[in-house]
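Lab meeting, item 3. Inverse folding demo.
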């Protein structure tokens, strides 16, 4: 799993595996899901991060496993 933040694009991308992306769908404004050939989600992109949270700190990401 990979998480990438692109400050210039104001976007966050979560890639779940390395499967080939065969289809993408915007499921909500600024939220795009990428699918493999089995129609499983393999990526999630969130656009306009700075508009989603006024207190967003891109240099201090936290990961929590429960």
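The presenter then showed the designed sequence:
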């Amino acid at each position: 799993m990979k998480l990438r933040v692109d400050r210039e694009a104001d976007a966050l991308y979560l890639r779940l595996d390395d499967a080939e992306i065969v289809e993408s769908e915007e499921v909500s404004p600024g939220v795009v899901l990428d699918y493999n050939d089995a129609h499983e989600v393999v990526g999630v992109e969130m656009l306009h991060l700075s508009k989603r949270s006024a207190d967003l700190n891109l240099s201090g990401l936290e990961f929590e496993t429960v």
